[in-house]
């Protein structure tokens, strides 16, 4: 009906005639020609392939939706992979007329080919291996200051500088700070245990600290791991002793509290026992 | 903007999952994606070690020669270039600046060799700024031709340090991975005397990143065992290698070991030569 009105006889706004052929300007047209089988207006079941921003879509029109112009065309995104997309077209247009299926696939092939060509052309024009700001980006990626600092620290570790820098002192300070932080946050029980061991440790520390001093005098190397471990252990113990001396208020004060608490506990224990008995 | 939205989504998902979240994905960088260069030097490569023992820098690395550098410019240098040459001379120990009054390089070179110079640096100038550098190792050594960019003189660098002292600086060569990069690195190393004076606490760095070589000159202090502070003295510039010739500077008959051919070599954005 539609075709008999528009196509051949009367006026179709999409139709363009030339000497040899009639063309159809409708954007949903599959072949571009004005034919009975290619007219999207005249066929109630129709499909096309169109591309948008480099991606191809399969548009389908079925007779059930003829009453809803807004939902008329159903759109399916096709895969970027050529073969997969052909399979997708086949899946979606299964049971559809051979003509439409075939022409859809042809159109899709043409579209992908011209997209490839577009990509190649733009590549030849604008592609620059070292783009404008590449030096600055390389500079940022280089992170020169960090790299230099790392390298210098590496060289320090590997003892290329020899005896110039003495670092046990610094390590002591660090360990001190660590110890202070730890002892402040320690639980009471841990402090009790430490205190019980303190007396024992006092003797031990004195011997070890003397030894460690001598060791440091002899070997000024800071890089060997064993010595670092020893130093750390010594530091912890020494910092204990140091914290006693250096923080007179805090140290004894801290220890006073647990001492007091111990006494209370002892007092209460016998009382409960007597009560029970 | 879409990327920002995606990132936010991912963050939310990660927080929602808590401990079960998959480990953070490593972002792709150009360094990660770099096309593997077959000429990358393996530290244990014997062939490379043998080559280096017998190439033109062997006498330097065996401490038989002491570097003596001649710095000069192209004809009629302008103020900026002159000042840059002077600063470069303070950075590189045992270097001398001579003005070129229209003398051809081919004639200079025999004179330099006669006077015991080991290296020649020519700074090319264009429109009052230095833009090229030719580094030539003299007793018949390789010649490297660089394009120089982003030159900063000492007063243009934001720092409060004093001038570099006369102490011999240390040298850091970063990221020279391929054979070509290795030979260029050795060229740079040969400019400086082999025994740095650590008292001076100065370090000259040549850092290669994506075929750009960044030169920096710093003074360092070790604040503690794991912290070092650096302060930039000295000029800075970036170089890009244009060509490497086998013999001394000879533009017509020289045997080129490597030229940067724009069309052929720059095929991929992730392929670098140094």
Please name the defining characteristics of this protein.
heterodimer; A: mainly alpha; 5 strands; disordered C terminus; B: alpha/beta; Rossmann fold; 10-stranded mixed sheet
Q: Structural class of the helix and strand makeup of chain A? A: mainly alpha
Helix count of chain A equals: 9
Q: What is the total number of structural domains of chain B? A: 1
Superfamily (CATH H level) name of chain B: Brix domain
Largest sheet of chain B: 10 strands, mixed
The helix-strand sequence of chain B is: HHHEHEHEEEEHEEEEH
β-strand number of chain B? 10
Low-confidence stretches of chain A: 191-277
Unreliable stretches of chain B: none
Beta-strand level of the residues of chain A, as a percent range? 5-15%
Total of DSSP H or I helical runs spanning 4+ residues of chain B = 7
Number of strands of chain A: 5
General shape of chain A: elongated
Distance between the termini of chain B: 36 Å
The portion of residues forming beta strands of chain B comes to 25-35%
CATH topology of chain B: Rossmann fold
């Amino acid at each position: 009906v539609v075709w008999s009105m528009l196509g051949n006889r009367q006026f179709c706004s999409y139709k363009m005639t030339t000497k040899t052929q009639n063309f159809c300007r409708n954007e949903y047209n599959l072949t571009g020609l004005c034919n009975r089988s290619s007219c999207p207006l005249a066929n109630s079941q129709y499909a096309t392939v169109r591309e948008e921003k480099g991606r191809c879509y399969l548009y389908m029109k079925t007779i059930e939706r003829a009453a809803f112009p807004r939902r008329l065309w159903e759109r399916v995104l096709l895969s970027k992979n050529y073969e997969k997309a052909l399979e997708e077209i086949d899946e979606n247009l299964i049971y559809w007329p051979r003509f439409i299926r075939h022409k859809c696939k042809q159109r899709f092939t043409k579209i992908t080919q011209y997209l490839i060509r577009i990509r190649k052309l733009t590549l030849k024009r604008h592609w620059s291996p070292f783009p404008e700001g590449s030096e600055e980006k390389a500079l940022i990626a280089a992170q020169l200051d960090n790299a230099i600092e790392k390298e210098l620290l590496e060289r320090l570790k590997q003892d290329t500088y020899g005896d110039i820098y003495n670092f046990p002192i610094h390590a002591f300070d660090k360990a001190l700070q660590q110890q202070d932080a730890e002892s402040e946050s320690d639980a009471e029980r841990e402090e009790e245990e430490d205190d019980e061991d303190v007396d024992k440790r006092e003797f031990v520390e004195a011997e070890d600290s003397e030894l460690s001093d001598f060791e440091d005098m002899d070997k000024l190397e800071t890089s060997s791991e064993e010595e670092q471990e020893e130093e750390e252990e010594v530091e912890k113990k020494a910092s204990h002793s140091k914290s006693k001396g250096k923080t007179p208020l805090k140290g004894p004060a801290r220890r006073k509290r647990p001492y007091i608490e111990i006494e209370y506990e002892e007092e209460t224990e016998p009382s409960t026992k007597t009560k029970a008995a | 903007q879409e990327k920002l939205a995606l990132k936010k989504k991912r963050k939310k998902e990660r927080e929602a999952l808590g401990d079960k979240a998959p480990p953070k994905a490593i972002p792709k960088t150009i360094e990660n994606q770099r096309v593997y260069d077959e000429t990358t030097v393996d530290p244990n490569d014997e062939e490379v070690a043998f080559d280096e023992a017998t190439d033109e820098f062997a006498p330097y690395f065996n401490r038989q020669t002491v570097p003596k550098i001649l710095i000069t410019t192209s004809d009629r240098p302008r103020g900026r270039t002159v000042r840059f040459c002077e600063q470069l001379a303070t950075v590189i120990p045992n270097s001398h600046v001579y003005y070129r009054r229209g003398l051809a390089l081919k004639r200079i070179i025999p004179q330099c060799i006669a006077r015991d110079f080991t290296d020649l640096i020519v700074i090319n100038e264009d429109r009052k700024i230095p833009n090229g550098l030719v580094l030539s190792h003299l007793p018949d050594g390789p010649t490297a031709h660089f394009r120089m960019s982003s030159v900063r003189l000492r007063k243009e660098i934001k720092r409060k340090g004093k001038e570099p002292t006369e102490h011999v600086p240390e040298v850091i060569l970063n990221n020279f991975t391929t054979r070509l990069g290795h030979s260029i690195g050795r060229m740079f190393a040969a400019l400086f005397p082999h025994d740095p004076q650590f008292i001076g606490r100065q370090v000259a760095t040549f850092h290669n990143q994506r075929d750009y070589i960044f030169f920096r000159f710093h003074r360092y202090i070790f604040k503690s065992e794991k912290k070092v502070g650096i302060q930039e003295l000295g000029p800075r510039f970036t170089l890009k290698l244009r060509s490497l010739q086998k013999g001394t500077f000879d533009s017509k008959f020289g045997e080129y070991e490597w030229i940067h051919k724009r069309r052929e070599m720059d095929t991929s954005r992730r392929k670098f030569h140094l």
